[in-house]
Every structure is written in C-alpha cells, then in structure tokens.
C-alpha cells in the first residue's frame, strides 16, 4: 500500500495522478482537515502533525508515503530516520523543473502557504542547485482557503477570478520565467493560472 497525505483536498491531485500510474498497488489518502491549514502553524506543530500522519498511514499498512503537502515537505529533514526512509517529500522535482524552464541564473516565482514562503522552503532548494537564480516568493494563504471552499478551474467565482488576476499580474511584473505552484491546493487552479501568465512556464508540483 502507498499512502498520501495533505492537510486537505490539495493532495488529491497527486493522489489521482498516482492512481492512474500505479495499477498494482493499493493507495490510501489521508486528509488532515481537522488540523488545516498547515500553512499558518508553527514548525513544531507541523513536525508533530507530519509524524502523526506517517504513523497513522503505517498502521493502515503503507510501505511508502508521499508527503503531498509542500508545507509538511519543508520539515522532512527534521523527521526521524525511519520516517524519512518511508516518506517522500514533494518539493525537489518542482525546483528542478523550474530551473530547467528558467535556465541558469533565471528568475523563478513561487506561490505557496505563508509557512513555506516565510521559511524559504522552495527558494533554499532552488539556490542549492543554482545559487545565481533569482527567486520571488508569495505567501498566498487565502488561495488555499478559496480552494478548500470550492474554487477550481471549472468553478471560479468573480471575486476569485479578480484575486487571480491581481496575483498573476504581480508574477508577470516580477519578470519570472517560471512559476512554481508551491502548494498542491493550487493544482486545482492550474489552468486558470496558466491562462493569465501567457509564456511563463507553470510548474504544477502535484503533477511531478
């Protein structure tokens, strides 16, 4: 069994893609909605929640676990060795994909939860691979909440569209060559974001 967890519905995008790829393995999804959102919690709280989720999925029989939450992936290094052995963070592939699109020394934007932005989780990962890159981070906690309330590519209210217009306007002005959707919740709005960004490459973390 493979386990997947997130603080809400964001990680369902990763779960659904895994379900299409993996045919000979049972998958189970854990949405820790009782403790959502993770993005406004302290580091200690997020570590505790991640440990609890890993333990619960292990009890259910998971032999491998995808941390389908960028915020929780940011504390991966602080998990115990046995927890790191079974769990896989979702951040690294997105950083690598953005660098491939932006090129060496390129400009990359990241939208994420407040915790991820404040702790420079994606920025640190990107700069480890290319210290000449320029990374602009946007903590968009409200966007997480809008998705939890039902905002998606197929269901966007006028006020949500206006919010995306302003956000994508800021990203365009930053001169970024690539944008990382640094929270799996944002995958539910990937097409709407792509429409507004034109030639800027959009890296959907949940799709990697």
What is the strand and helix layout of this fold?
Layout: E1 2-6, H1 12-21, E2 27-31, H2 43-60, E3 64-67, H3 70-73, H4 81-86, E4 87-89, H5 92-102, E5 107-112, H6 114-118, H7 121-129, E6 134-139, H8 141-148, H9 158-173, E7 178-181, H10 190-197, E8 201-204
Parallel strand pairs: 1-2, 1-3, 3-4, 5-6, 5-7, 7-8
Overview of this structure, please?
- With 208 residues, this protein is of the alpha/beta class.
- It is built from ten helices and eight strands.
- β1, α1 and β2 form a beta-alpha-beta unit.
- It is globular, with a radius of gyration of 16 Å.
- The mean pLDDT is 93.
Mean pLDDT: 93
Class from secondary-structure proportions:
alpha/beta
Please provide the ordered H/E string of secondary-structure elements.
EHEHEHHEHEHHEHHEHE
- Note the overall shape: globular
Write out the strand line-up for the largest beta sheet, numbering strands in chain order.
Answer: 2-1-3-4
E-strand count = 8
Largest sheet: 4 strands, parallel
Quickly list its features:
4-stranded parallel beta sheet; about 210 residues; about 20% strand
Brief rundown of the structure:
With 208 residues, the chain is an alpha/beta fold. The chain has ten helices and eight strands. The strands form two sheets. Strands 2-1-3-4 form a four-stranded parallel β-sheet, sandwiched between helices. The chain has a four-stranded parallel β-sheet with strand order 6-5-7-8, with helices on both faces.
């Amino acid at each position: 069994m493979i386990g997947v967890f997130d603080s809400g519905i964001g990680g369902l995008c990763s779960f659904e893609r895994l379900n299409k790829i993996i045919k000979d393995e049972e998958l189970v999804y854990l949405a820790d909605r009782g403790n959502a959102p993770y993005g406004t919690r302290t580091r200690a709280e997020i570590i505790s929640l991640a440990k609890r989720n890993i333990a619960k999925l292990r009890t259910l029989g998971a032999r491998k676990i995808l941390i389908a939450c960028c915020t929780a992936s940011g504390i991966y290094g602080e998990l115990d060795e046995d927890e790191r052995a079974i769990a896989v963070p979702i951040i690294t592939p997105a950083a690598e994909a953005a660098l491939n699109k932006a090129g060496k020394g390129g400009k990359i934007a990241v939208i994420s939860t407040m915790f991820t932005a404040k702790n420079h989780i994606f920025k640190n990962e990107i700069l480890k691979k290319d210290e000449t890159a320029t990374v602009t981070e946007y903590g968009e906690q409200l966007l997480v909440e809008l998705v939890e309330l039902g905002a998606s590519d197929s269901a966007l209210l006028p006020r949500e569209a206006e919010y995306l217009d302003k956000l994508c306007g800021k990203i365009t002005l930053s001169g970024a060559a690539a944008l990382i959707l640094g929270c799996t919740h944002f995958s539910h709005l990937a097409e709407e974001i792509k429409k507004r960004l034109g030639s800027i490459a959009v890296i959907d973390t949940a799709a990697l």
